[in-house]
Structure formats: structure tokens, C-alpha cells
Write a structure and sequence with these properties.
Keywords: DNA damage, DNA repair, mRNA processing, mRNA splicing, Nucleus, Repeat, Spliceosome, Transferase, Ubl conjugation pathway, WD repeat. The protein has four helices and seven strands; from the N terminus they run ββαβαββααββ. By secondary structure, it is mainly alpha-helical. Among the domains are: 60 residues, Zinc/RING finger domain, C3HC4 (zinc finger) (Herpes Virus-1, 2-Layer Sandwich), CATH 3.30.40.10; 75 residues.
Length: 249
């Protein structure tokens, strides 16, 4: 009877109800606590599915290899090899952990540097903003309160509020009256306009067809270089088009 995990004769044998396999009690308990499955069949397994096997308590005989000095030396050599392999695996894990730790420390240091730089830029921006806010009221107070505009009227002096900002007036009734009069005059002029006789009717526009197309000039595609109005016919446009002829000999 051999344990399915260690491959040795168990001291406290137990049997699984689901798979019927034999295990060492301490090994299967630890495996169930870590994984909750059977190590052989990968089925869900609990300690309720484990049944202890009752055996006679007898003294285990000494193995044949331990009965002689060469056998003992072989056992010691095997134990030494297993110890060296375990030590090598631990050294590899330690080296990997050191590399991960150094990488994490480097990332932490870089993040701290970036955060410190951002804080410094934030403080500088706040200082510049506060300085600009202090300079705005002084520049507003030093401006001319009554400047002369092009139409000969004087600008009303701007009032300054409690926060140091200008309170600019909106459109006054005089401006509203002027805008209303201008709108009425322009509307009357537009109504007096007549349709020019040279304007093409809709049915004539529907019969138009495209004869040629000349886009603007490009380096890879020649086209229109300049445009001008016809000297005698205002409704016509004159275009200068770059046309490149290649003669093949």
C-alpha cells in the first residue's frame, strides 16, 4: 500500500470515498486545505470524503540499504543531492524575487519623481495665476476712463466691482434704436430690389451640364493659377489654367 502523493508507505493511511486512492493523512489534509481537490483525479474533495484505514501498529523494519555502510552512504548521497536541488531552486526563487523587488523600487522612485515634478509645476502655475490676478485690477485702474472713439462719442467709464473686475454695460436704448432704424432701412432697400433680367431661370439651370472641371493648381496636379472678372461682362470669370503638354518622340 503506497501513498498516491509521496509514493511511500503511509504512517496514517486514509482512503478517498470518491477515487478509492490511498493517501498519507497529513499530506492529503494539507493538499485539501490548499486546493480543495483530489491530487490525482482533480475532483472536488473534502475531509468528509476521507476514511481512515485501521492497521496494526508494528515497528517498521529497517530498509536493506541501511543495514550496511555502503547502503548508508548511498542514502546520505541521495539526501545530499535532494538538499542541493532544493537549495538551487530556493536560490532561483530568491534571485527572481530580488529582480521583481528592484523593478518595483525603480517604478516607485520614478513615480515619486513624477509626482514631485507635477507638484512643483502646480505650485508654479498657482503662483503665476495669483500674480496675474493681482496685476489685472492695476491695469484696469490705470487705463483711460474716457477714451474717444471714431464716431466722436466718449466711452462711458467702466465701473469696477468688489472683486476687482470690470462691470461692462450692455446695449443701451440708444444703440437699440439705431439698430432698429438700420434694420428697417436695409429691409426696405432689399424689398425694392428687382430680379436682374440676366438671371437664368430654374428650368435653364436644370439643363446645365458639366463640360470640364479645373480644380486649383497643385504641385502634382495642374489647375487654376489665378482668377479675374471679365472686363466687359461682369457675370463671367477668367481663369488662368496651367496645362502641361508632353510630346513623346
Amino acid at each position: 500500500m503506497i501513498c498516491a502523493i509521496s509514493g511511500e508507505v503511509p504512517d496514517e493511511p486514509v482512503v478517498s470515498k470518491k477515487s478509492g486512492l490511498l493517501f498519507e493523512r497529513r499530506l492529503i489534509e494539507r493538499y485539501i486545505e490548499d486546493h480543495g481537490k483530489c491530487p490525482a483525479t482533480k475532483e472536488d474533495l473534502t475531509m468528509d470524503d476521507i476514511v481512515p484505514v485501521k492497521t496494526n501498529t508494528i515497528v517498521k523494519p529497517r530498509p536493506l540499504q541501511a543495514a550496511s555502510i555502503p547502503g548508508l552512504l548511498g542514502i546520505f548521497q541521495n539526501e545530499w543531492d535532494a538538499l542541493m536541488l532544493s537549495n538551487f531552486a530556493l536560490e532561483q526563487q530568491l534571485h527572481t524575487a530580488r529582480q521583481e523587488l528592484s523593478h518595483a523600487l525603480y517604478q516607485h522612485d520614478a513615480a515619486c519623481r513624477v509626482i514631485a515634478r507635477l507638484k512643483k509645476e502646480r505650485d508654479d502655475a498657482r503662483a503665476l495665476l495669483a500674480q496675474a490676478e493681482r496685476q489685472i485690477p492695476a491695469s484696469v485702474a490705470g487705463a483711460a476712463p474716457a477714451a474717444v472713439v471714431s464716431n466722436g462719442k466718449r466711452v462711458i467709464e467702466d465701473e469696477i466691482g468688489p472683486d476687482g473686475k470690470k462691470i461692462r454695460p450692455g446695449i443701451n436704448p440708444v444703440m437699440i434704436d439705431e439698430l432698429t432704424e438700420c434694420n428697417a432701412m436695409l429691409s426696405a432697400q432689399r424689398k425694392k430690389r428687382q430680379v436682374p433680367p440676366t438671371l437664368a431661370p430654374i428650368d435653364a439651370l436644370e439643363r446645365y451640364t458639366q463640360i470640364s472641371s479645373h480644380p486649383l493648381h497643385k504641385t502634382n496636379k495642374p489647375g487654376i493659377l489665378s482668377m479675374d472678372i471679365h472686363p466687359s461682362k461682369v457675370s463671367l470669370l477668367l481663369c488662368v489654367v496651367w496645362i502641361l503638354y508632353i510630346y513623346l518622340l
